[in-house]
From TrEMBL:
GTP binds at residues 8-15, 33-35, 50-53, 61, 84. The lineage of its organism: Bacteria, Bacillati, Bacillota, Tissierellia, Sedimentibacter. The keyword 4Fe-4S does not apply. Pathway: Cofactor biosynthesis; adenosylcobalamin biosynthesis; adenosylcobalamin from cob(II)yrinate a,c-diamide: step 5/7; Cofactor biosynthesis; adenosylcobalamin biosynthesis; adenosylcobalamin from cob(II)yrinate a,c-diamide: step 6/7. It comes from the Bacteria. This is Adenosylcobinamide kinase. One of its GO terms (biological process) is cobalamin biosynthetic process. It catalyses: adenosylcob(III)inamide phosphate + GTP + H(+) = adenosylcob(III)inamide-GDP + diphosphate; adenosylcob(III)inamide + GTP = adenosylcob(III)inamide phosphate + GDP + H(+); adenosylcob(III)inamide + ATP = adenosylcob(III)inamide phosphate + ADP + H(+). The active site is at residue 49. InterPro entries: CobU/CobP, P-loop_NTPase. Coiled coil: none annotated. One of its GO terms (molecular function) is cobinamide phosphate guanylyltransferase activity. It is an enzyme of class 2 (transferase). Its EC number is 2.7.1.156, 2.7.7.62.
């Protein structure tokens, strides 16, 4: 079992690179699609992603209850699992929560973040316990303009903290910059900052 984490900005080529790694890892791949189609733009994105994936791959549309993956033959019959993407998963949880992020307490936001974190960690655990190679795709949300509204700020902060937790559980990590992959981590080795940084 191994975890490969692929992160980058929007339309940076993350999915294409992650799919390439999945093809390297196994022939039997399960694709976990976290997107929920809510408008024409999302429908177009989903269509394009489907068209570029190998037809032989299995697909499950899900972003929660990953502990139940063991009940799906698509999971048991696959050697590698690819989830695309974590930030969409986070957005789905935030929408499902029905919280008014302009008015709700920070305690409610923290509870939601903990719920999302446990869900993501459960995916890593179920793949680990079943000897699956896992490829995780996520957006780097902390390098752009600071959102001017509460929900955007919470989304950015939750994404950043969950991405950090995934990176520490990963064996391999790549940052995709304008279509170019930059290796950040290989089998537990990360770049160390100078002591006085």
């Amino acid at each position: 079992m191994s975890v490969t984490f692929v992160i980058g900005g929007a339309r940076s080529g993350k999915s294409t690179f992650a799919e390439m790694k999945a093809k390297e890892y196994a022939e039997n791949v399960l694709y976990l699609a976290t997107a929920v189609v809510t408008d024409q733009a999302m429908a177009d994105r989903v269509r394009k992603h489907k068209e570029q994936r190998p037809k032989s791959w299995s697909t499950l549309e899900m972003y929660r209850d990953f502990k139940n993956l063991v009940n799906f033959p698509e999971f048991t019959n696959s050697d590698a699992i690819m989830i695309d993407c974590i930030t969409t998963l986070i957005g789905n949880f935030m929408f499902d929560s029905k919280l008014d992020f302009d008015l709700c307490s920070i305690e409610k936001v923290n509870e939601l973040e903990e719920k999302i974190t446990l869900e993501v960690m459960s995916l890593i655990e179920v793949c680990n316990c079943n000897n699956k190679k896992l490829i995780i795709v996520s957006n780097e949300t902390g390098m752009g303009v600071v959102p001017s509204y509460y929900m955007g700020n919470y989304f950015r902060d939750i994404s950043g903290r969950i991405n950090s937790k995934i990176s520490h559980r990963s064996d391999f990590m790549y940052f995709i910059f304008s279509g170019i992959p930059i290796k950040l981590k290989h089998k537990g080795e990360m770049v160390k900052w100078p002591q006085d940084f």
